[in-house]
Each structure stands twice: as structure tokens, then as C-alpha cells.
Batch of 2 targets.
Target 1
Amino acid sequence: MRRALWLPVAPRASEKLLLACALWTGVTALAVSDWQVAAPKLFGVLLGLSLAYLISVDTPSSGRVHLLWLGLAIGMASLITIAALFLTEWPQRKLLPLDGLYTLLPMGPRVVDHGGRLGGIGPNQIGGSLALLVPLTLALSLNRTETRRIVCTVAALVLVYALAVLLLTQSRSAYVGAVVGQALVGWWWLRQRAWFRRHPWALMAINATVSLAVVGLLAATAFTWLAPFDSTTDTLKGRLTIWSVSTLLIGEHLYTGVGPGHFSLALKSTFPQLSASVAPYVPHAHNLILQTLLDLGLTAAVLLGTLIAVALRGLITVARAADDSSRQLLAVGLIGSLAAFFVYGLTDTIAPGARGGLPFWLVLGLAVACARPARRHRHPG
């Protein structure tokens, strides 16, 4: 197991990876043709890298790590769910008959531009952000060692609220990602309970139930992927088309990418026929890896991937061997959050510089910080 997790990069090198990725954005800027489009996305990438760097630059104390955990699991999750009710452009029926419920929700100002038309925030972006955060919130609600009972109760209420809004998004990718991330957290937590250690059959029954639930969700999702929709980006055929042309674009712009925020522009100029066959406006590549390569280029994508691998290696080590059970649970929550986001990113994505991508950078920074040994406060005398 240790050999499988070994990487030739020390955890302390995470700051260098973040700095190198930020410096490479200067090379990415060479591909920019429309700065009005690229500037907000480029700023979003640099802001995200800066926040991740500030969180992870120093070996944090247990109190600071716990405070960051509270901020993300309760504060950020609450902010996203509240904003979602007012600013989301709710979808047509996909999996659930929720059209009547959408009419009861408050309608706020539609301030987000979708390729020349004003509209609300895409429900898939809300779903992806919540899929990232709910495993972390679940872990906080289960933490009974260093967290007060009232905080655990608030975290549980925020979790229920976030899951309700996630359900409204009807984002199939987010559904699957959230189930996988929370299942990881729940599985680890149950394995630590003495009762389940004495009754392994109960844990096996829960594992079987969760596995059947995941299989059922995947089957329902696959069925809707094969069904016709008004927008063919919501079908498997449409996604395969987008992925294939995205791969061709990566081949043409391997090192610089097409430029932050330039995916739809590059798509229209290189494959104008795609608008008629798939959709008039395709905002991103609907895959996290492809979108990162297109926005940042190969070098930055490799640096970012190495940083995530280093963080995951450290989190697994903390989850297996840390003396602090609270820090172990935080590490498991972060692993679940990253796993949920990457499962979501298999068939959908939030672009690295998008506003909805801010929680990812914060989670990544906290993951790097948690992977290091905690610095205890020294008391005089």
C-alpha cells in the first residue's frame, strides 16, 4: 500500500507546485485572443491558486485547520445553497418531476451571461459545488471529539439543506459524485465504531445496500443519457461529440491551451458545424481533465495533477495513522470531497477559472494543509 502511494515529491513541495502553476498562466495568456473574455477566467485561476497557497503555505495549528473546516463545511455550503435558490436557472425535467416545485422558488436577478444571453447560474455548476462540499459537511456532522454538539447539529442541518438543493439541480453527474463521496466518509466512520467491529455482518449489509443504491443511480443516469432531450449536450451522443472535438483542440494547443474562457470561441472557429449538431452554445468540455488541458495547457495540468496526487497521498496517510481522530475524520472528508468532484468531473465540469470553481481551490488548499503534521499550541510553564 505504501509503495502504491509513493510519489517522488515531498508534501512540502506543494507550495512550489502552486507557484509553478501560477507562473505558467503567463504562458497560457499567450493564447488569449479576446481579453474581455479571458481576463475574468484568468483572474479566477490566479485567485484560486493564491488562496490555496495562503491556506497551505505554513504548517497550520489544529485550531486553524478546524476553523477552515467549519468555514467550508458550514459557511461555504450555506452560501452556495442560499445563492442557488435565487440565482439558479432551473432545468427542465431530467430525472425527477420537479417542474411544479421550481415555480415556488424565489426568482432573483439573472446576471450570468450564457453566450450572449442573460440567464441564471447553471444548475450543473451548483450541483458540482455541492457535490464537492457535502462529504466535508457530513464528516463535520459526525465529528464528536473536538466539535461541540451544537456545531455538529448545525452541520447536519446544512447537510440536509445542501442535499435538498442538490436534488433540485437534477445534475446526474453531481448526484453520482455526491453519493460516492458521502459513501466513502460513511464507510470509514462505520468501520471505526466498536459495535460494527463486533458485528461485521452489519457492515457487510450496509456495504451491499450502498452498492445497490449506487448501481441503481448509475442505471437511472445511464437511461436518461440515452433518452432524447431538447439540448443534445445532455445525451451521451452529444457528450461524446464534445469530448472528441475537445481532444482535437488539445492536440492543436497542447502547451498553451486555447486560453482561459476561450473554449466556446475556439469551438466555433474550428468546428462551426458543431453548433447545428450539438448546441448553439457549449460553455465547456464537460470533462474536468479535458477542460483543464484546454484552459491551462499540458504543463499546468500536469503540475496541478501532481499537487492533487501529493495532497491525496498525505490525506490517506493521515486517515490511516494520525493520533487525532478529528484530524482523521477531516482527512477522510477531504478525500470524499475530492473523489466526489472528480466523479462529477468525468461527465461534467466547472472550468478552473469559473466563479463556481472557488470551493475547489479552497478544498485543495485545506487538503494540503491537513496532510501535514499539526502544529500544537505551546502553553508556557
Target 2
Amino acid sequence: MELNPKTYEPCAELTEFVKRYWTLDGEKENIPLKNTIVPDGTMKLIFHYGDTYKHHSREGDITILPKCFLIGQLTKPYVIEPVGVTGSFVVQFKPNGFLPFTSIPIKEMENTAVPLDVLFGEEGNILGSLILNANSTFERIQIIEAFLLKQLANKTMIDTIVNTTVETIFNANGQFSVNEFSKTNNINRRQLARKFSSAIGLSPKQLAKTIRIQATLKVLLNEDITSLTDLAYENEYFDQAHFIKEFKEFTGLTPKEFFGDDLKMSLIFDKN
């Protein structure tokens, strides 16, 4: 059985930064033993008002995740396992949306669960306990929005060229050439990469790869695919070997394993 998240829109003042909120509720027996979070180019604040999760590293280490934390930009699959009954409230930021809320460089949080007190000091602890003790999703959204709007009062504005690049990458489903974009917009390629890295924590090329694999997963999920080769070419991978390599880099599985009958984990990716 799938855990279906319920999603909610942010208020108008936060739409530039927050993509959406979502909640996830379910019993332990309804969830595969392990879940793989596939990189999607966004950072998320996660509040577990239910039981927490374990994280399985590639090296085989297991750590218990905090109740409240930020998950930085992922560049590789992130494997988690529920400890008990899931109850989670998630704030999903736009790819460049978390920048105004942090004094820690975005790049330093890559593939990492950062506790709220590290991010926001004592205010982070207070935020966490308010959200965990709230009685409804509506109340949680009110708490987080009040907190974010207060933080924004002293924000640094997001660079326009970064915004434009992100929009271009999303609109093209990741079919994106940094060279062409730099020429068209008359911006130095290195300068763009620097701005991108500080605002998003990924290079334009990394974000494009991430969005392309997300688009490919959606097709795999929603359409009847007869040939992986066709899928690879449709999504403009050079050849099937290149497609398999990137698929595994982001999901930890080959496409064949993804289609196998005995899939022991579910992939969590951006289905909407």
C-alpha cells in the first residue's frame, strides 16, 4: 500500500520560496521496510509528530534521524526506514527557496539531516516543539508561516538569473544546455555556476539531471512503458548505458531492478 501525502499550498507571501506543505500518515505495516528518497532538487523541513525514521547510509551505517530537521539538497538516493507509525509534516522549498532562511552555506548541508537548533538556534527548538504539539495541519501551517515570514523580514533577495535558470530547467523537464543558456542570457558560465551553488547547493547541470530523472520516473509510473530504450531516447539520454548509469546514481537501482516484482523498497519522488 502506498502512503499518499496530502498537499497544501503556501500563503501568497511565501510562494516565491515554498513549493508546498504535505503530511504523511500511516501504519508501520502499510509501509515497505525501506524507502528511497530520490533527489528532486528541493530542500525540506521535516517534522515527525509520529515516530521517527532511521537512515541507512551507503556504507551500511544506521542512524536515528531527529524528530525535526532540514534535509539538504540530495545528490544521491537517501534510504530511510520507519521506526513505527508515520506522522510527518513537511515544508518543501523551491530549489532556490531556502536561501533567505539560512546563515549556513547551502552547499554544506548537502545529503545531510540538519537539526533545527543548528539552523535556527533556540528558536529552532521552540519551532519544533510548537509544530510537534499542534493539533492539526492547519495549525502547523500557521506556525511555520509565521516563523518563515518573521525570518524573511531580514532576507537577502534571490538572484533573478538564478530564478530564470531554475524556471527554464523545470519547464524543459531537465533538457537543458548550460552553454546555450549562458549564451542566450549573456552570462558567464562560471559566474552562473557560482551563483547557483550558493543559492541552491547544486550546479545548473546537477539540477537539470535531477529534474530529468524525476520526469523519467513520472513517465515510468504513469505510462505503460514497453521499451526502456525508447524511454531513454525520449528523455534525451545519449544512449541506454548513460540512462542506466544516471538512473542508478539517483535511485540506487537499475531500471530492471525498479521493474522487478520483489521491490523491497518504495521510491519517494515528486509525483506531482
